[in-house]
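JOB MANIFEST
job_type = single_chain_structure
chain_count = 1
residues = 205
[input]
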Amino acid sequence: MIDNNQTILLFIKQLQKIPYLACKNLYVVAQYFLDLEKQEADNLCSAIKNLKENTQKCDICFIWKERNKDCSICSSKRRDQETVCIVETWRDLIAIEKTGSFSGQYHILGGSICPLEGISPQDLTINPLINRIKNGSFKEIIFALNQTPEGEATATYIVSKIKQLIPEKDNITISCIARGLPVGATLEYMDRLTVSKAVVERRHF
């Protein structure tokens, strides 16, 4: 019986920690790993170890990058240095990049403000963003946050901080992506055309 196989039970307990992995699929995934050839399993473990050892967040925009290498976005000479797009997650950034409709800078917040889940402004990269704007030369700030109550509240909070702490930056245009995205939708699950139109047809905040 599987209840007596501690090795499998311990493995499934680790699988349960993976977000978005439905409970009904735990044994299916476990079966996949059990059927793997040893070399394939070793390659997967090696890839995960390499990922953890050689990947870190950029100190400026907070995108994942290779350790000890420049961020490909922040260091790019071809990208617009005067426009920054604020997103919640790395996955949202990827969704926008796939559209090819934006070529400026990014800033990843790491989520949105949500008191019910214990996520406060201090848990996000809002302070680094404010300092970045204060010390930078941005002409436009684009909010590409998910159109959820938490996303809207986060954008409103950041805008108030910008106007309160950096009043001399009145010449900055503050905009947000167009309402082409359904309310309550998340960027990473939208098709490229919808995301592209939302970015291109952004409006003033």
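[summary]
Helices lie at 6-15, 26-35, 38-54, 90-99, 126-135, 149-165, 192-200.
The chain has a mean pLDDT of 89.
exit_status = 0
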